[in-house]
Write a structure and sequence with these properties.
The complex is a heterodimer of chains A (about 350) and B (about 400). Chain A has about 350 residues and is α/β, with parallel strands linked by helices. Chain A is built from 14 helices and 8 strands. In chain A, the strands form 2 sheets. In chain A, strands 2-1-3-4 form a 4-stranded parallel β-sheet, sandwiched between helices. A 4-stranded parallel β-sheet of chain A has the order 6-5-7-8, sandwiched between helices. The relative contact order of chain A is 0.13. Chain B is built from 16 helices and 8 strands. In chain B, β7, α15 and β8 form a beta-alpha-beta unit. Chain B starts with a helix and ends in an 8-residue tail after the last helix. Classes of the chains: A alpha/beta (about 350), B alpha/beta (about 400). Chains A and B meet through α3, α4, α11 and α12 of A and α7, β4, α8 and α15 of B.
Amino acid sequence: MSQKSNGLIGFACSYAPLQVIHAAGFTPYRILPEGDTPDQAGQLLHDNLCPHVKRILDRGMSHDVPKLKGIVFVNSCDPMRRLADAWKDARPNENVMVVDLPSVKNDSSVSFYSKEISRFSKTLSQWGNEKRVSDEKLVHSMELYNMLADLLKQLRKKVRRNELEGGRATLQKIYNYVGQNQVEDCIKLVKQHLEKKIVSTKTDGVPLFLFGNVLPDVKTFELFEECGAFIADDDLCTGSRMITQVLEPDKKDLYLSISRSLFSSPPCARTFEESRPFQIAENVLERARKAGAKGVIGYTLKFCDLYLSRLPFIREILKNEGLPVLVIEGDCSLGSLGQQQTRIEAFIEMMR
Amino acid sequence: MLEYFNNVVTGIQKRINSEPHKTNARKKYALEISKLGSRLYSDSGEKKIAWCGFLAPFDILNAMGVTSCFVEFIGAMLASTGMADTYITEAEQDGYAIDSCAYHRSVVGAIKKNVMPVPDFIIGTSCPCVAGLGVIENMARIYKKDLFVLNVPQENTVESVKYLSLQYRKMVEFVSAQIGNPLDEDKLREAMDLTNKARALLIEVYDLAKKLPSPANSIILKDYGIVLNLLMGTQNAVDVAKACRDEFINKIEEGMPGLPEEKIRLLWVQSRIQFRFPIEKILAEKFSANIVIDELNNIFWDPIDLDDPYTSIARNTLANPFAVNIPKRVSLLQDLAKEYKIDGAINPCNWGCRQGAGARGLISNGLKKVNVPVLNLEVDCVDSRNFAEGQIMTRLEAFMEMLDNKPNPFIS
């Protein structure tokens, strides 16, 4: 049974510690870049910021978001920093917090981010007029999210075996639900899908690995299928990177455990290790091979510097390893992908 | 490029020597920066070379005897010599998107064509931008050199200061291992003292520039604060700042303003147009408009505590306009507008700059609140290939006409 919620806490980045939001008695609500709100972001921010940020801001300025108790922005990239600034300007009466996330993984970064998560936790308590989040509550929330993460892993395997009705599109619906609902309800939903049995049918889709950032539109996955793709696995902010498991939490410092887990999970392009620059390329290759992919599609948002600077090398590595790669840029929506349908079809046809 | 810088050094030195009675402030600044360029390209191996992010602590690196520079410096240099376009094209052919910042694309192209001096090690900074850090990561991969990254938090908290100052200590350990020498604490103290001396002189320089009319013209302090940072911790920074201070004093005493008939006083946001477009000359000659202050020509940082330099530098870095949130940045701009009695501001909105130009509307709105109109130029400061001079001139003319007919909000 879901806990009573003190309200919604908005977030826009997969690095937001959802366990802490839940432990503080709130429901995390991922504001997705969807809908048809008028373009207003350009009044505050430059048009050359990514469509993810602009659309979220558009929604905020049009009051096209549910009532929020507050919103947390992770300092994950420059547009996110600017989004936080613009959000505060557009919605001055709303609780806003920016959490600083270091760019590289090392001991001092992990330690610093644990303090940021702790600061976030304190802030949430203030927003909810509640006492500080207890360790018991936090452990309980971590256990629930760990369970959810495990269930989602099982669901991804089901997709890979072509045993989930609706395939990757259905999985995306579930990911979107996970970002906007109580974890208990999410667990229930995922279990329902795991329990449903359908006869596994061989797909004639070409198995592909999809990497990139924000792609929540369910119809885009239907489009990939129509083009002849079978998305065997993904590395997306709105996909497999949604939930971080906190394994072996240290009861003496739970926030450190969360921080360590976040840094140990598959990273977005913005996080790397100083000793292994461009590890992202190796990660993409490894995941693609594991998924049995015949090719790779890199989907990134227009103006995303994090990927713009790394794509050339990722392409080079995949090419050297004999894995065809198609890079497409979009604005999170089906429309932008639809324009590239011919390219996607030709790419897939090439691999048949 | 070594030949280029050596020629520039020789040329400037000659001109300075031919006018020993003059303060030659801008020439002295250009000389020291060109000498840095020569050192970067020199392959003598005398000093280790580090490519860095923009907010690296150059005074500490200077104290350790490292020749260091932020990567965008090369982008700017290539643009000012008319060479950037070639390297930008090179980077684009390699798959670097045209939507990214041209400072970085030119550097990536220069790396590809072996025009960048090969570093001995690399120090990245997460601020001001993730794109810059991406270039740094690229460098580490291509050159196979050790990399250290300074994570600069945006939120200025007690923990942020502690975290950043801890990172500076770790950076010193990293650099010591690279150069094979520990940091000499006396040299560090001396460097910090020199930084403080330069700081005090710069405060005088910028205060003098506030005069009506200003002793500064649009060129003398062009990108000054940004680039002078590279010399901090050295006597050169002190000498350059002193030359500028003395020149301004002389000009004021002799009644020689930076721009005779100064009519319009301008604030320039972020960094200047780097390729050859004489906007400063056009502003002066056509509109009697003078850029009396650039955003980063501002001492927004406290003197360094010689007994705890790392904490001081951390606090100062966190106060940088490129590190803070936009409300804070706008507040600094508003203060500058008031102190310098600005008629209007020009924001080039460098294409591809998410962290800076990304806040275009917030900055315009913020300056509007103090009655300072902003011209958002929408120009690429490094890539001149698509530069539409006609459009820029039209916009400039309209803006200047408006300012000409508008009373200065700070002069009664």
